[in-house]
Design a protein that fits this description.
Oligomer: single chain
Strand order of the largest sheet: 4-3-5-14-6
Strand content: 15-25%
Order of helices and strands: HHHEEHEHHEHEEEHEEEHEHEEEH
Distance between the termini: 69 Å
Helix content: 25-40%
Length: about 300
């Protein structure tokens, strides 16, 4: 199409050929192929002159418009690729969204006004491709080899806690095995342990242990586990930033502080997970870089969350 427009502008196959690095014979073959495709003559050719037919004039008019649109689109795509813009779909757990993302989003959106953020909070992970998710924020390395993974920061460890009233009524807890005699408030993991049990892992002075604990409440929501513990129902296990305020105020007490505990992995990092891109969209790159910088340097930010236990 561009070759035809150049022929029409120069009225010469050889001149158009030189502009495209083609021989006159090659240009002629391409014009013949174009005419055969449409079944109509586009150029009247003589030994001295080349002139467009009526069909050729129509093709020139339309081709010029089409090429202008293509060039405009290429320019728009280049601009789109050059700066963050468009809809950014982010997934996280409810507590992660509340404690980690909410304090940072106003600054991100002010810095990138052409980005529209869609934040989807659920208690279970979601498939990125199936749900059209650009970035997922997760605690711990999920180990998904087909996805790109960027560690943003080292987050707070998970801790065991209960209300002072519960501990006064049910006695002290000096070792992980003591939990087998207590009401443990647990988080159901992907349908596992439907019998009401949960597996908690421990690492501490006595080495590494794994226990099947149980209680009368399983719920996949950190806020409800915290409220249940505050009400004296039992012992729960959550990241320290979920209960730091209650522990500081004395409404909750940490249990087994010399032991690390987890229902999944001892990796407490915060990770951004996204699809592998040969050319990463600027909106994804900007969001991941922004979070990495913000989580590495939380001091001085309004509403910053704790990244380490006090």
């Amino acid at each position: 199409m561009r070759l035809f427009v150049r022929i029409a502008q120069s009225e010469s196959l050889s001149a158009a050929g030189r502009a495209f690095g083609l021989s006159p014979a090659s240009v002629s073959r391409r014009v013949n192929a174009l005419e055969s495709e449409f079944g109509v003559r586009l150029i009247n050719r003589t030994s001295r002159r080349h002139a467009l037919t009526e069909a050729g004039q129509l093709y020139l008019e339309k081709a010029t418009r089409i090429l202008a649109d293509i060039d405009a689109l290429a320019g728009q795509l280049s601009q789109h690729q050059a700066r963050p813009r468009g809809l950014l779909h982010v997934h996280a757990r409810v507590a992660v969204g509340h404690h980690f993302l909410a304090p940072l989003l106003p600054e991100f959106l002010a810095r990138y006004p052409e980005v529209t953020l869609k934040l989807w909070l659920t208690e279970e992970p979601r498939d990125l491709v199936e749900n059209g998710i650009d970035v997922a924020i997760r605690l711990g390395n999920a180990g998904e080899p087909l996805l790109a993974l960027r560690k943003l920061a080292d987050a707070s460890e998970r801790i065991l806690f209960a209300s002072p009233d519960y501990l006064a009524r049910h006695g002290p807890i000096r070792a992980p095995e003591d939990l087998l005699r207590h009401n443990c408030l647990t988080w159901p993991l992907d349908g596992r342990h439907e019998d009401g049990h949960a597996v908690w892992q421990f690492r501490g002075p006595g080495g590494r242990r794994e226990l099947r604990v149980a209680g009368n409440l399983q719920v996949n929501n950190g806020e409800m586990l915290r409220e249940a513990a505050l009400a004296g129902l039992g012992i729960a296990l959550l990241p320290v930033w979920c209960v730091a305020g209650e522990i500081a105020a004395g409404r909750l007490e940490r249990v087994l502080p010399s032991w690390q505990a987890t229902p999944t992995t001892f990796d407490h990092g915060i990770y951004a997970v996204y699809q592998r891109h040969r050319h990463m969209p600027p909106k994804i790159r900007a969001f991941v870089e922004f979070l990495a910088q913000a989580l590495r340097n939380p001091a001085g930010r309004s509403g910053a969350f704790p990244l380490a236990a006090e």
